[in-house]
Each structure stands twice: as structure tokens, then as C-alpha cells.
Predict the 3D structure of the following.
Amino acid sequence: MKDRTPLLSLRGVKKRFDGFEALRGIDLDIYPGEFVSLLGPSGCGKTTTLRLIAGLDSADEGVILLDGQDISNLPPEKRQVNTVFQQLALFPHMNVEKNVGYGLRMRGEKKEKIAKRVQEMLSLVQLSGLEKRMPSQLSGGQQQRVALARALAVGPRVLLLDEPLSALDLHIRRFMNRELKRLQKESGVTFLYITHDQEEAMNMSDRIALMNAGAFVQVGTPQELYDAPATAFAASFIGQSNLLEGTLREADGERGILTIGNADVPCRLRRPASSGEKWFLCLRPERLRCAAAPEGDFALPAVLREHSFVGGVLRSEAELADGRLLILQRQAEEDAPMTPGQPVFISWNPETAPLVPWEEATHEA
Amino acid sequence: MKRNRRRPESLSLPMQLWMAVFLGLALLYIVGLSLLKSAGDLHVTNEITGENYVRILSGRYAEVLWLSVRLAALTTLISLALGYPFAYIMTRLGPRARVWVLLLVIAPSWTNALIRIYGWKILLYANGPINSLLQTLGIIDRPLKLLYTEGAVLLGMVYAMLPFVILPVYTGIERMDWRRVEAARDLGASPFRAFLTITLPMTLPSLLAACVLTFLPSVGLIFLSDILGGANTVLWGNVVQDELLKSRDLPFAAALSAVLLLLTLIVILLYRRAGGRGEEMVF
Ligand SMILES: Nc1ncnc2c1ncn2[C@@H]1O[C@H](COP(=O)(O)OP(=O)(O)O)[C@@H](O)[C@H]1O
Ligand SMILES: [Mg+2]
């Protein structure tokens, strides 16, 4: 993927609103045919990024390149990117057909060509037959599809989607997630998808650009972000994690020993680290083992606390000797029944527990 | 969506009663009066007749009605042409500037309308400021006849009606969701085409409301044509006034009023046909 030339690039893009720095210099390359998500908490600058790409706002610094051409100073109508807006912004005085054909009419296409393209788009989003409906006569999910068809009809190089599903119910949202992914594959259009829902981003994206407070925290595949979070924020925003603070006692190449409380655990060093440093150990709940007796080379003694069943999965909390709580997740049938209050031993495969740079205040996702 | 906000009908009952008594009954009274025979000097007989209407159809009244409607329509058109861009620009101002401009639009209505029209009269006199200025600048040799013309009446009407365009249209554009205009630009529309295809249709309800709010009062204005038009510009309102105060023919004046009522009804029906719901008239 990296050897191709990027389709869309952001270089050092900054944006201020009355002195408030909404974007603090962001860089991103998006390659043809990719599905990239811009993921981050509300207010981190996702919509601002998208508006700069679409040309609805202008950047204070930096450039935006489409196919290597600087488009930073082009008005929105001259940019070959189209947007599905967060509030959809369908035209209320036009029926479905007119909404979807709007961009083609503005381009001065012939009537027959517009009609044909509109039909294509409507069948792609599975709305054939609703041509004459007004937007107000459609359900939320259908309006969503009209907005999608309208933006795709023009044939954008990159389709920008701003939390297009956030107004829908959870189960329709998950359904639409799959639909969107199918649509993206079928159309071959490059998607830049904005969301604050990490599950959505993990499910759909080829790559995720994780954002916080106007800057990118980490850009990578969902797997990379999950397995090797770059910061404590990344570890807690994507999936669930237990972050245990420890001091590196030994660092020898890739192998290290981390002291957590008064227990020593082995760990894998994926980046330069030296002994004496503080690190977080990121433990994913489903990668923890919990046993009544110590197994293997090491184990943290703990006491089992709460239990709860969520969809065939048993979630429990274990309290470590120093009072810290660990979240565990196990398949319900897998383990011997254990009861709250029971002493247990927690262990894990050191290969699957990454170290994350330690920082004073940790973020809660 | 706005329709869902409809309050329970019963809450508006006192209001409906009030309207029925003071408006409905009064109008019915006028229509009833118009069907009676005059006994002169504001008195009536109890003989029912249609001759008041026959008189309207046969006299020079068609001409007067045509002039009234034409002037009102022109007033509406000119007020829209001036008021719409004005309101549009207002919505694009910063919040502070906006308050000041809004104040400038509303402030004149704090003085009596009559006094303001006399102000125009002074400006338009043969030896008034406008003619003096034009003469001083050497643009004209002799004073122009500005006062007592149709043009003067039109000017006065536009002046009086402009706020009734600016306010509803301003509210309409202000309420509009600009993201739809952005969506249009995103889909390839130039600023001007986005205006024509999105902004204009979406603010059409306020435009229709402005039409009604301008046209209807314009047809009935009396003192304006008296002061600025003199004897040269006789409008429907003047005829009603004359019949009532000079000829003292109550039933005939009532019949003339009933014609105005019918015109109003037609305009309102047209407004509703065009999709107006009256919401935009409240600002
Ligand atoms: N037009 C604006 N004027 C002032 N501040 C703005 C404007 N647009 C966005 N912001 C601020 O910039 C930050 C990022 O906003 P936004 O990009 O909309 O966040 P997100 O889409 O990630 O929720 C927020 O703090 C927001 O308040
Ligand atoms: Mg947003």
C-alpha cells in the first residue's frame, strides 16, 4: 500500500477559531481505494478536518493535496471530493430523484445521463422505487441512503462522511456499517469516514487515524492500534484495557522485567526502553487468564469481585493486592466456576501485552 | 416537524371567540349594510337591494381598482427587490452590526406614520431639498414635479412597506439551515446557483408572507395617496373614504369595502394555495 502515491494528503494543516487551536498541524496520506476512519472523541477536530478537505473552511497553515495537486485554495464546487454531512442536509423541497441528481445537474449533464446515473445510484443504495418521495417522507435510514447516493452520484475521488450514522439506532447503525462497507467495495471509491464510535471504526476501516485535541495520536490498521497502542489515550479509547503502572527493572534487547507493585512480570520491549523508567502495561480483558492456582512463570495474586454475564461472555473484576481493579473477560463455559471473594491468580502471554508510555494523568475513554 | 408543535385547539378558544365577535361579526355587518338602500346622511332604509354593486360595476370604479391593485403590486415588487437583498445581507453581518441595522429598520415606526409621510412631502416639494440639490448640481434647470404624482405615491408606499418585507424575510433566511447551501456548493453549485436552487426556494415561505403583508395594506392605504398623490391619484381607499365622509352614503361605502374584502380573501387563498401557512408572518 505504501508504495503507491497517495490520493489525498494533508501536510501540516492547522486551523484556529478565535485563537483556539482546533487543528494543531495534522499530516495524513490516504491511498486510492482505502477506507480510512477519523476516530476521536467529540470536539477533537474531526468535522473541522473534513470541512477543510471539502473546502467549506480554509486552513490557516498547511496544504491539502488531491492527486498531488494543491487544492487548498479551490472553492468547494471545484474540488473532486463530496460529503455526506452529519445532519445529512438533504434538500427538503426536492424529491429523492432531484436530490440525487442535483450534483449532475449543476455539472450540466444531459437529462438522460442524469436519469440513468440516478437509477444506478438508487439501486446501489437500494432505494429504487422511492424516486418521487420527498425527504420528509423517508425514515432516518432511508434519508441516510439518499445523502449517500447524492454524494456518490457525482463520482467523487474521495467521499467524506461525517458521522453519517450517529442519528440512527444501534442495530440499524450496525446494519448500515456493513452496508457502507459493501458500498465502498462495490464502488471502489476512497472513503474518509468520521466517527467517535471505536467499534464502528474497528469494523469498517482499512486504517484508522486516531485523533485527540486537534492532533493525530496514532495512524494505523485496526489491528496495529489494538495490539500496539501508541499512548495511554489510544489504549483506553480503542477497545477496553487495564493500564498497570510499573517500573522497568531490567531491559535487555526485546526482553524486560517490569515491577508492578511488588510483583515482577516479564514483558516484551517493542521500542527503546531502559531500566528505571516508568511504563504502563496494557492488559486487554479478554487476554487475561484467571486461575485458582498459579500457572506458568508468573502470576499476580488477586481476589475475584463482581461477575456479570454479557452475551455469553463472563465479565469480572479482580482486585490486586494493592487495591487496583482489573477487568477480565472469559468465555462463560470455558473455566471452572469461580465465586466472588475467591483468591485467584492472574496471568497472560507477555507477547500480547504491550507497553505504553507512562503519563501523569490517564484519559478515560 | 413544526406541525407537531400544534397546541391543543381548546387553548386558542378565547382568541377564536374574540376574532369571531370583533372581526367576523363586524365584517358580516359591513356585508349586510352593503345590501341595504341608503337614506342619505349615514342613514339606511331596511329595503334590500343589489344596486350598490351594480353602481360599482358601472362607474369609473374599475379604473380606480385597477390603479390601486397595480400600485400595490408595484409596491410589493419593488419592496421585495429592495428588501430581500437587504435582509440577506443583514443575516451575513456580525451579531453587533445586525442589532444596529435591525434597529434602523424598526426605529422609524416609533414615530407616527403621518408625520413621516409629511417628511417625504417636504422633501418632494418643487422648492424642496431634492430639487434644490439637483439644481445646484446643474443636473436640471427647472424644478421637477415630484409631488402629486403616481411616482410619489409609489415612493411613499415602498417606504412604508419595506419593513414588512425585511422583517419576515430576515427571519426566514435567519432560520434557514446554511448547511444545505454548503451541501449544494459541495455538490458543485456556484454561489449564485446555490442561491437560486437552495436559498431562494427555502426562503420562499417568508417571501410569500412578505408579499401578502405588503400587498394587502398597500391596496387600502388612504392618507398616503392623499398627501403625496393629491387629487391626481385616487385609490380604492380614497373612494371609500369619500363615500363615507363626503357623500355620507353608508351602504355604498360598505359595498366598496366588501370589494376590498373580497380582494383580500382572494390574495389569502392564493397565498394558501402557494403553500403559505402564516407562520412566517410572526416575527
Ligand atoms: N466555527 C467555529 N467557531 C468556533 N469554534 C469552532 C468552530 N467549529 C468548530 N469549533 C471548535 O473546534 C473544535 C473541534 O470541533 P469539531 O471539528 O466540530 O469537532 P468534532 O467533529 O471532532 O466533534 C471544538 O472545540 C469546536 O468547539
Ligand atoms: Mg463533528
